[in-house]
TrEMBL record:
CDD domains in the cross-refs: HTH_XRE (cd00093)
Residues annotated as domain HTH cro/C1-type: 21-76
GO MF terms held by the record: DNA binding
Entries under InterPro entries matching the protein: Cro/C1-type_HTH, DUF5753, Lambda_DNA-bd_dom_sf
A Pfam family: DUF5753
Family matches, as SMART domains: HTH_XRE (SM00530)
Protein name: XRE family transcriptional regulator
Gene source species: Halostreptopolyspora alba
Length: 274
């Protein structure tokens, strides 16, 4: 990307990189002080890196990758600084992590934060057949770990509406899909996730504009996020956000209720395992 006028990576790069450093540090169970000691740095520097306040030196990036990334942080830095690449994905992930509520409509797959590792691996493999198997596995593992962290957190509350086509797609085969559906049922049982399904036979389907999510935070305006394979479009215009809130309400209105949706999922599992 993304150097700025001084030839240095811009704020978005440093923020996305720092967010991933913090995530990997917490995943490894290190305090900032412990990481600083292992990376031959200081707690203040680690804190500044995680907050995106400074551009980490090549030496520090190498030390952090050795301690935390095992190649992941080096790959991320390259992705972030060569093009706009992955920045938007990390920015959206940060929005979700700090949100109080997320309202999401999906048309093809379960949202990433509801996916099992096997389901994620099947989707990534089919969607990016050029990736080597090792990278597919790594990406799926990272998605699964993030899914687990989000499931264990107290927020955000998740309201999800799925198009009926999601259940019709057998990514990874019957066993993978059955385990995916069981995983979703377990998450719904914990009252963090509300799930509704728009049945294929519903004639009044308002979700014709594609998948999107509405993200609500306590101290900032709501935002609308629409993602494509190459970019994420973030909308903060209050009127447009309000329009999609109306559409989400309309989707909930034509979808099966939460109890009926869970019944449909259990029926799908029974059919897959019979």
């Amino acid at each position: 990307m993304a150097p700025n006028g001084n030839g240095k990576p811009d704020k978005r790069v440093c923020t996305a990189y720092g967010s991933e450093v913090r995530r990997l540090r917490e995943e490894a169970g290190f305090t900032q002080t412990a990481l600083a000691r292992r990376a031959k740095s200081s707690k203040t520097t680690i804190s500044d890196v995680e907050r995106g306040r400074v551009t980490p030196s090549p030496q520090l990036r190498a030390e952090l990758d050795e301690v935390l990334g095992k190649g992941r942080l080096s790959h991320l830095w390259k992705e972030l600084t060569v093009s706009d690449g992955e920045i938007w994905k990390y920015e959206i992930a940060e929005m979700i992590d700090s949100a109080s509520a997320v309202y999401e409509y999906e048309v093809l797959v379960f949202p990433a934060y509801l996916q099992t590792e096997a389901y994620a691996q099947a989707i990534i493999r089919q969607g990016a057949p050029w990736l080597p198997s090792a990278e597919v596995t790594q990406l799926a593992q990272e998605r699964w770990k993030r899914s687990q962290r989000l499931a264990e957190a107290e927020q955000p509350k998740l309201w999800v509406v799925l198009d009926g086509a999601v259940l019709a797609r057998r990514y990874g085969g019957p066993t993978v899909i059955a385990e995916q559906l069981k995983h979703v049922l377990r998450l719904v049982d914990h009252d963090r996730v509300s799930l509704q399904l728009v049945p294929p036979e519903e004639p009044r389907h308002p979700g014709v504009s594609g998948a999107y999510k509405l993200i609500t935070t306590e101290h900032a305006p709501d935002v609308l996020v629409a993602e494509s394979i190459r970019e994420g479009h973030v909308v903060t215009n209050a009127l447009e956000v309000a329009h999609y809130r109306m559409q989400f309400a309309a989707l909930q209105g034509v979808a099966l209720g939460p109890a009926e949706t869970l019944t449909r999922l259990r029926e799908e599992i029974k059919g897959l395992e019979s």
